[in-house]
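Dear Dr. K.,

Following up on our conversation at the group meeting, I've run the structure prediction for Amidase domain-containing protein from Collybiopsis confluens. I'm pasting the input sequence below exactly as I used it, so you can double-check it against your construct before we proceed with anything downstream. Let me know if the numbering doesn't match what you have in your notebook.
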Amino acid sequence: MSVHDLYRLTASEALQRIRSDQITVEEYARSLLKRIESRDSQVQAWAYLDPNLVLSEARALDAVPRDKRGPLHGVAIAVKDNYYTKGINNQKLA
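The predicted structure tokens came back this morning:
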């Protein structure tokens, strides 16, 4: 599987590959962002998405020492737009 197709991984598969250093969190995030970019004009699932923030957070996760990583380290999630989220201007979403 190429780095461009990492978005196809299940959460368990992505987690296993991140844990075994087969992929980085940043590579995984870049693949997810590319997929969102290619499909969101049809799907319209995202009210707010900051790719720069996603990549910055992914790089920060890659820098976390292995012994400090949690059980879901690097697994991507989406947060529903009606949840207030620290650092996100929810007023822009209304």
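Two things stood out to me. The radius of gyration is 14 Å. Residues 25-43 form the longest helix (19 residues).

Best regards,
J.T.
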